[in-house]
Write a structure and sequence with these properties.
The complex is a heterodimer of chains A (82) and B (552). With 82 residues, chain A is mainly alpha-helical. Helix content of chain A is 60%, strand content 4%. The longest helix of chain A has 24 residues. The relative contact order of chain A is 0.06. In chain B, β2 and β3 form a beta hairpin. Classes of the chains: A mainly alpha (82), B mainly alpha (552). At the A-B interface, α1, α2, α3 and β1 of A face α11, α16, α19 and β5 of B. β1 of chain A pairs antiparallel with β5 of chain B, so a sheet runs across the interface.
């Protein structure tokens, strides 16, 4: 277990990490083939809707935060002027 | 006066007082026993108004119980006990006494049957929470505590003004649903929203809480914002404005947490985010939504305290608070890491944790009313919570890279406190009926359906993908992010300093004028006897004042 965690500390995440992640993502999508998703609006029953909505909004939030950061980030000692 | 003993707040206040004068084992016993006795007292109260007092022509009802108030009081007592256990031996001076009094204030608000009692305990919380922040020590805590106090007392003044106005107009101080058609109701709403960390007053959470001690911030995370949620539920259920306010808070919390480097500030921003879910639910206002707000407050207090305890342990062991200084701590503190991860999963509403069974009530309420955009926003926000708190916090603190630090897991009392809340996160997630049984409205909802599980796993796993795919963009920088508090920390401060300088200059000028005037007077000795009559005058004035007070 410990050795496994150590491999996460490199410059880039190891191949095996990505393989496991992709497998989990694939499984969660495949589950929708077996389970009928009970939606409220229609579009939330589309195949992979939650996956796409979760991924896209997260990308928008991260990039939005970066953009806001350009305007609002300051050095840590910004308020220590006296 | 026997009712006084029924008041759960009294047990905590007595505990606070005793713990301040006792030392050693006796002090520790009192600190741990007081929250448990208060919890016992909470569950002795039957529903309804239990105590009426006439005071200055008003009827006060300091002890009004129902299921909603009992739910909040229960989790406050659990929190006070676990927080006290966590900080039992590690807190400095009288910090835990202040923390118990602060929790007592929160219990007082829980059972306040009228607005005057509510306000009284509201201010008790403001005073003692400020003391808890100051116990953090250092310049940072002193200044942030001062800013916190000013803001909260200002909020208190606005709340008091609204309450008085309401009392004078309607002749009643009873706690009832208020319509925003009267300016007095607006004042009350603003006063409460300051404590709920609503915009534009969100900055105080991330400014003040992370300056408290490791144990202090655990207490702070629980009471102020959640009593504000309770009061919103009592006074403003179904106020549509709150939906927008809540959604703003939800995304504000995510974006600011994503930009943050300080681990406890990340968690502070996520308090605003989570309270946003509750405020939004209060705005939706149906039975399902209010159940959602109450359940989420209960679950949130527990997992947020757990997260802050794990962060507090890291801070206490290493003295470091920035993600850029941390990483790889799983090696030497596996227990703390595991607790941090359980808290992170619970806040992300991962299946089989408490967040999963509480957060979904609010989404369901939005879906029931066909509020498409609200539902979409809440779903996106759930994904965002996994991003900023669920993965970011444990990843940057416990994994990511080897910082070279090898802090050990904490002593037994801190481990026990964390273990207790970690267990509660999982137990509530696996047996939701425990939580649903406490809710104010009957619950007709099943969280564990195959459909809900699959959609939640898709949502969370793909937001996890977004995190790791965008990891280079998430690199921590040694920065802070400006917020609305900039307005009073920079321009307002400059104006105040400027006015001060102006006064200083004019004072000097006037002083000089006086000196030259006195120089022209015939002899300075003639001015000397003035002091005696001035003293006599003062004495007369004082006596008149005292007589006036006695006659009144």
């Amino acid at each position: 277990m410990k050795r496994w965690f150590e491999r996460l500390e490199g410059e880039r995440l190891p191949r095996r990490f990505w393989l496991i992640l992709w497998a989990a993502l694939g499984l969660s999508l495949a589950a929708q083939l077996l389970v009928h998703l009970h939606g409220y609006f229609g579009f939330d029953e589309w195949f992979g809707f939650n996956a796409v909505w979760g991924f896209l909004t997260c990308v928008v939030m991260v990039l939005g935060a970066k953009l806001l950061g350009v305007a609002l980030k300051r050095p840590e000692d910004y308020y220590d002027h006296d | 006066m026997t009712e006084l003993a029924l008041l759960p707040a009294v047990w905590l206040m007595t505990g606070a007082l005793l713990s301040a004068v006792l030392t050693g084992r006796a002090r520790e016993g009192v600190i741990l026993l007081a929250p448990l006795l208060a919890l016992w007292a909470v569950w002795q109260l039957p529903d309804g108004n239990l105590w009426s007092i006439s005071y200055l022509g008003m009827t006060l009802e300091p002890l009004y119980a129902d299921s909603l108030r009992r739910l909040f009081a229960t989790v406050f007592c659990l929190m006070a006990f676990t927080g006290a256990l966590f900080a039992l031996r590690q807190s400095a001076g009288r910090e835990l006494s202040a923390a118990l009094a602060y929790a007592g204030g929160a219990l007082g608000v829980c059972f306040a049957g009228d607005l005057f009692t509510l306000f009284l305990f509201w201010e008790v919380m403001a005073v003692f929470s400020t003391l808890v922040i100051w116990c953090g020590g250092g310049d940072g805590a002193r200044q942030a505590g001062f800013r916190y106090a000013v803001l909260h007392f200002l909020g208190g003044v606005v709340l008091m003004a609204g309450i008085i106005w309401l009392g004078v107009e309607s002749g009643s101080l009873s706690i009832r649903v208020l319509e925003l058609t009267h300016p007095a109701a607006w004042l009350v709403l603003i006063g409460v929203l300051v404590n709920a960390a609503a915009p534009p007053f969100s900055a105080w959470v991330a400014d003040a809480y992370p300056e408290a001690s490791a144990g202090g911030s655990v207490f702070l995370s629980a009471f102020t914002t959640k009593t504000a949620v309770l009061v919103l539920m009592l006074l403003f259920p179904g106020t549509k404005l709150l939906i927008g306010v809540g959604l703003f808070m939800v995304f504000y919390g995510i974006v600011y947490a994503l930009l943050e480097n300080d681990m406890r500030r990340i968690l502070a921003y996520s308090i605003v985010n989570q309270v946003g879910f509750m405020v939004c639910a209060v705005g939706i206002g149906t039975g399902m939504a209010l159940n959602g707000a109450a359940a989420h407050a209960f679950a949130h207090i527990i997992y947020k305290a757990l997260l802050l305890m794990s962060a507090g342990t890291v801070l206490w062991r290493t003295g470091r608070r920035k993600c850029t200084d941390l990483g790889g701590l799983y090696r030497s503190m596996p227990f703390t890491t595991a607790c941090g991860i359980i808290g992170a999963l619970a806040i992300s509403a991962f299946p089989f944790t408490s967040g999963f069974v509480s957060k979904s009530l609010t989404s369901q309420a939005a879906a029931d009313l066909s509020m498409t955009w609200v539902w979409l926003a809440l779903t996106a926000a759930s994904a965002g919570v996994f991003l900023h708190a669920g993965i970011k916090f444990p990843w940057f603190v416990f994994f990511q890279r080897d910082s070279g630090l090898r802090p050990a897991d904490p002593p037994w009392n801190m481990r026990l406190a964390m273990g207790l809340f970690a267990l509660l996160c999982i137990v509530l997630g696996c047996f939701p009926s425990l939580l649903y049984g406490l809710l104010p409205y009957p619950v007709d909802y099943r969280p564990y359906t195959a459909s809900h599980l699959v959609s939640q796993f898709q949502l969370l796993l793909f937001s996890g993908l977004a995190f790791f795919a965008l990891l280079p963009a998430m690199r921590r920088t040694l920065t802070i992010t400006l917020d609305f508090d900039w307005l009073y920390r920079v321009p307002l401060q400059r104006v105040v300093l400027g006015v001060g300088q102006l006064l200083e200059i004019s004072r000097a000028a006037i002083g000089q004028g006086m000196v030259s005037l006195i120089d022209r007077l015939p002899s300075p000795e003639r001015l000397a006897p003035v002091t005696a009559p001035a003293g006599g005058m003062l004495l007369v004035l004082l006596m008149v004042l005292i007589a006036g007070m006695l006659l009144a």
